[in-house]
Amino acid sequence: MPSKAHSPTSEEPTNIVPLPDSKSAPELRNFSAPENFINRELSWLEFNRRVLEEAQDPTQPLIERVKFLTIVSSNLDEFFEIRVAGIKQQIASETSDVGPDGLTPTDTFNAIQRTAHEMVAAQYSLWRDELTPALARSGIRVHDVAHLGSKRAAWARRYFQDEVFPMLTPLAVDASHPFPQLLNKSHNLLVRARAEKSGELLYAIVQVPRVLPRLILMPRGKAEDEPWDYIYLAALIKQNIADLFPGLILDGVHAFRVTRNSDLYIDEEEADNLLRSIEQELRRSSRGDAVRLEVEADCPRDFREQLLEFFHLSEADLYKLHGPLTMTHLAPLVANDAFANLKDRVFQPARDPVLPPHADLFEVMRKQDVLLHHPYESFDPIVELIENAAEDPHVYALKITLYRTSGDSPIVEALIDAANAGKQVTALVELRARFDEAANIKWARRLEEAGAHVVYGVVGLKTHCKMLLIVRRDNDRLRHYVHLGTGNYHPRTARTYTDFSLLTTNPAVTEEVAIVFNTLTGLASYPGMEKLLVAPFDLKRRVIGFIERERDHAQAERGGRIIVKLNSLVDQEIIEKLYEASCAGVKIDLIVRGICCLRPKVGGLSENIRVISIVGRFLEHSRVYFFENGGEHALYLASADWMPRNFIRRVELAFPIEDPALRAEIIDDILPRFLNDHVKARELQADGTYIRLRGEEGQPTSQAQAHFRERSRKQARKLAESQKASAVKLAPLITMPKARS
User: Is 272 or 565 the better-scoring residue by pLDDT?
Assistant: First the structure.
């Protein structure tokens, strides 16, 4: 794999512009000039290319490469459903709006399509030429149904007749049967046949059932070295499609998949019942306008043209695939525990030493603040805190924001138990958390049935902050116990996303958290905070103030240092302020996993700004803001990226880390580990491309995620040894016979 990320050729549309030479650089101070910004959509595609690079990396375990290949497809699905759909709507409305980068919607759409087509071609080439043969060598084979041996073919035929055929419904397409309204991302077959006598051309659609596995595992023998043989469900249906059309002569059968606009359009001012409105919009969104058509590579031109006409799409929207219609169908390979030797080493999060199993969490929090770095440190204590609060007779109230959670959420179950026990439970459930709307509606209804107060956020805003407030009567007084996080209350993703959790009873923080809850659930106006930064009220203004303060320090020769870790950096005003600080001499390091519209390393503009992206085993999800402030460090953890939506259309929270030991952990250890990663880090270049960083030859490798994993394992071993030693000491006391009186 080349070390440098893809560079657009001269024939490809791009937002890359000529950069100023060093002689003219000092005069470049027009921070808002279009050439100073990278297009948001193209930057996202570069992020997905970095995910693809992980699949292309031969040093990765084989099944991990397949996993990253499925992620590339899943990412592209969401990108087309939301971002491309929005751009196509802009084009249709003939809007003349341009972004900070100066590209029109049509310019952006053309650049997206060419880059996405190139990416998909690379993805399928990797699957066909490298991963499929490598899997076969490891005893995992994905077969062409048409070329199965006699025994396998007989089994496939029986499986089709017994399990698949009863599920199928052919839908005629003719003058009296309009083209069916196929669901978003559904997998279908277009069938063309001829009547035996008249020779009349007939068309029909057969939808591949969603309830059946898309990748079918065939029977295995008992021997350990017996291969794992799979076939695609769509290919099996295609092979036996004649069973659905007796008396007709088949003229062609070809699989296709359509992606539709899946964004929700809710006018909250007009919606009398937000929950019901979102339910109705969810049903509509699965049948939104088509934005992409995927077909098998051998699909003939006349079939393709017929489908494009059906969906009102152009040739640019068509993707011809040399393999499965989506790589997400390979998920069973990733989930199969039998392939453990082809995966990363199993990782189990460790318990923080101050929160061992069965610890009194309330007592620990009264004594000290606790910082957890997930997934290296377990999310279990957060779940246990809520479960304990639900059972504790001294707990009177629980308040929480729920943006995303798992389908079998123990957190929601604990909240329901708390409400059933008569405690005051208030849940701000965000019904518009994209692609989790249906799950959140279900939880909202269950919470309401249990007697909890369910609030659907603030009109016009998504509630994205992560807050938990527990009100408990202690021996000395009524006390607030608070959890603040950078990630969701989602125990499953907490094992694969990197995030931070702060547990605190610090009154200066907890009282402000209580005020934020009251502001969101009541009628009071936002009073302003000293410790917390809250969007949409003051987060952006105060972040800009911090950046300007570093600029002023640098101009006064007191240094100037900014380190920020984000998922995305898009906001134009923030980027211009970073340029301004760079020109003043502030040294700026940005760790941005995904979209970055800032253009670094430009003379006279951003030569003091470095941008890296880390894509690895875990999804980098935490947000950290660090400002040196002349030695009086300001350190915040946050739920918010630096995007317009986070600053003005969401309720977000940034909270300070003030405990000296916890501050030192982040500033002196965690952030430097990210900045010195030379394995999974890529550095953004001025032209919008990324270069994978490598350490100096002969030097030990530095990989942040690997370091944190290994430290977690050592921590777990140390805790286990300590518990074992304690058990040994207690054993004589436990077994000693009771003395006679």
Answer: 565
CB neighbourhood size of 567 (10 A)? 21
Q: Where are the alpha helices (DSSP H) in 347-500?
A: 361-367, 380-391, 410-420, 437-449
Is residue 590 within 8 Å of residue 612, measured between CB atoms? Answer: yes
Q: 375: cis peptide before it, omega within 30°?
A: yes
- CA angle in degrees (0–180, nearest 5) for 627-628-632: 110
> Which of 179-183, 396-400, 452-456, 713-717 has maximum average pLDDT?
396-400
Contact between residue 256 and residue 307 where contact means Cβ atoms under 8 Å apart: yes
User: What pLDDT score does 407 carry?
Assistant: 65
Q: What pLDDT, in 10s, does the model give residues 28-76?
A: 478 999 999 999 999 999 999 999 999 999 999 999 999 999 999 999 9
Q: How far apart are CA 90 and CA 85, in angstroms?
A: 9
Among 287, 312, 342, identify where a domain stops.
342
Domain of residue 525: give its range. 361-531
Q: Are residues 416 and 326 in the same domain?
A: no
Asked if residue 715 and residue 695 are part of one domain, the reply reads no
Residues sharing a CB contact under 8 Å with residue 585, sequence separation 6 or more, in sequence order: 554, 555, 560, 608
Q: Which of 524, 684, 506, 514 is nearest to 598 (CA)?
A: 684
The dihedrals phi and psi of 214, each to the nearest 5 degrees, come to -75, -25
CB-count burial class (<10 Å; 0-12, 13-18, 19+) for 518: middle
Question: Which residue's entry shows tokens 């341009």?
Answer: 98
Closest CA to 433 of 399, 465, 409: 465
d(CA 26, CA 29): 8
Q: Spell out where 37-145 has E strands.
A: 140-143
Residue 541 to residue 628: CA distance in whole angstroms: 18
Q: Which two tokens stand for residue 275?
A: 């929950």
Number of domains in the chain: 4
Check pLDDT > 90 for residue 221.
Answer: no
In angstroms, the CA 470 to CA 361 distance is 12
Q: How far apart are CA 54 and CA 98, in angstroms?
A: 33
Which one has a higher pLDDT value, 14 or 500? 500
283-288 — which CB contacts under 8 Å span 24+ positions?
285/184, 285/260, 285/261, 286/183, 286/184, 286/260, 286/262, 287/181, 287/183, 287/184, 287/260, 288/85, 288/184, 288/260, 288/261, 288/262, 288/263
CA distances from 564 to 32, 204, 370, 535 (A): 21, 55, 22, 18
Query: How far from 429 is each of 272, 275, 515, 689, CA to CA, in Å?
Result: 17, 10, 18, 39
What number of CA atoms fall less than 13 Å from residue 520's CA on the CB side? 34
CA distances from 182 to 255, 290, 307 (A): 13, 10, 12
Question: Are residues 514 and 543 both part of a single domain?
Answer: no
Residue of 143, 464, 553, 621 marked catalytic: 464
Whether residue 107 is contained in a domain is answered as: yes
Q: Is the pLDDT of residue 176 over 90?
A: no
Nearest in space to 574 (alpha carbons), one of 611, 526, 542: 542
Q: How many other C-beta atoms are found inside a 10 Å radius of the C-beta of residue 736?
A: 8
Total Cβ atoms within 10 A of residue 403: 24
Query: Which whole number is the average pLDDT over 675-702?
Result: 91
> Region 124-152: what's the mean pLDDT?
96
Q: Compute the 3-state secondary structure of the chain and give helix, strand, coil in percent, each to the nearest 5.
A: 40, 20, 35
In a domain, residue 67? The reply is yes
Q: How far apart are CA 344 and CA 354, in angstroms?
A: 29
Task: State mean pLDDT over 663-669.
Answer: 97
- What does the angle CA 41 – CA 46 – CA 48 come to, to the nearest 5 degrees? 95
What would the pLDDT profile of 542-601 be if each residue is shown by its tens digit?
Answer: 999 999 999 999 999 999 999 999 999 999 999 999 999 999 999 999 999 999 999 999
- Residue 374 falls in the annotated catalytic set: no
Distance CA 110, CA 100 (A): 17
β-pairing, 497-504 vs 619-620, is parallel
- The answer for residues whose C-beta is within 8 angstroms of residue 223's C-beta and 6 or more apart is none
